[in-house]
């Protein structure tokens, strides 16, 4: 075959190629805005989550310290354990302080959301001196009781466990039980009486509750939707307005009677004690209330 001349090579013409694509800077700004908005949303949701988990710390300040026992006040007592959970172990630690006459009424003490039951011993002494049996105990998250930290729901359950202990293991009828509450414990005592109409009486000393308004004023909670996230409310005023249980309402103030007490339903005995007033006045009011509403069986 005859030799054919080689085909000429065709070289690309770079002068006619399309220019490279240029990213629109507006798209970059939009993408950056989306990333920043997503990061802000994640940060906000994290703040909301942390608030929801730790909100109990805004209204409760538990302590694990037991600084004194009834023995330090020359009171006979027995340490008791109750409130068995799913593990079969009792979670609540308390003191049974018997009165001089076992058949007299029994007080379930629901102490405030600060400290531990050892801080409530002076009030326990006053109740004992009024010839009452006393059960003083710590909620979960307080003192020697189990649990990591308290919440309103857990504390309400602990109050129910205390009533079950008194009526079950101690064999004391609801009609011989008095619910006592101070601080945040007032809400728990009022709920106990609301749920168990047979309870003989309710005693509240310097009660506290209805915490949502107070929390709204806290700078730590102004960034989150309180109405959706806050649930440690400890309602009190509404419960007292509709509760027919006889009530002794004690406040230590030089001002007007707190609104949640003045609006409480009858029957009630309202007592105002000046701060630092001696125990004689308190004991006299307590004695008058018991003689009127809680007759003591010999």
Automatic annotation (TrEMBL):
Keywords of this entry: Membrane, Transmembrane, Transmembrane helix
Annotated protein name in UniProt: Serine aminopeptidase S33 domain-containing protein
Pfam families the record matches: Hydrolase_4
PANTHER family with a match to the protein in the record: ALPHA/BETA HYDROLASE DOMAIN-CONTAINING PROTEIN
Segments forming domain Serine aminopeptidase S33: 107-215
InterPro entries: AB_hydrolase_fold, Hydrolase_4
Listed transmembrane segments: 27-54
């Amino acid at each position: 075959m005859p030799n054919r001349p080689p085909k000429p090579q065709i070289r690309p013409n770079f002068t006619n190629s399309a220019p490279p694509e240029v990213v629109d800077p507006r798209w970059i700004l939009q993408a950056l805005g989306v990333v920043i908005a997503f990061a802000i949303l994640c940060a906000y949701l994290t703040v909301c989550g942390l608030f929801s988990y730790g909100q109990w710390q805004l209204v409760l300040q538990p302590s694990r310290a037991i600084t004194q026992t009834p023995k330090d006040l020359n009171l006979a007592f027995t340490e008791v354990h109750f409130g068995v959970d799913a593990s079969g172990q009792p979670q609540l630690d308390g003191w049974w302080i018997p009165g001089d006459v076992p058949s007299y009424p029994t007080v379930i003490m629901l102490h405030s959301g600060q400290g531990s039951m050892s801080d409530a011993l002076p009030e326990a002494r006053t109740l004992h001196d009024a010839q009452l049996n006393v059960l003083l105990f710590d909620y979960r998250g307080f003192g020697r009781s189990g649990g990591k930290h308290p919440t309103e729901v857990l504390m309400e359950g602990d109050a129910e466990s205390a009533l079950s202990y008194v009526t079950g293991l101690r064999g004391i009828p609801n009609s011989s039980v008095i619910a006592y509450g101070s601080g945040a414990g007032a809400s728990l005592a009022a709920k106990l009486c609301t749920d168990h109409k047979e309870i003989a009486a309710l005693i509240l000393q310097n009660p506290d509750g209805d915490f949502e308004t107070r929390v709204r004023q806290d700078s730590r909670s102004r960034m989150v939707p309180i109405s959706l996230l806050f649930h440690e409310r400890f309602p009190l005023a509404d419960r007292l307005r509709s509760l027919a249980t006889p009530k002794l309402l004690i406040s230590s103030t030089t001002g007007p009677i707190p609104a949640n007490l003045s609006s409480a339903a009858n029957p009630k005995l309202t007592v105002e004690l000046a701060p630092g007033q001696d125990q004689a006045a308190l004991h006299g009011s307590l004695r008058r209330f018991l003689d009127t509403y809680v007759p003591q069986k010999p």
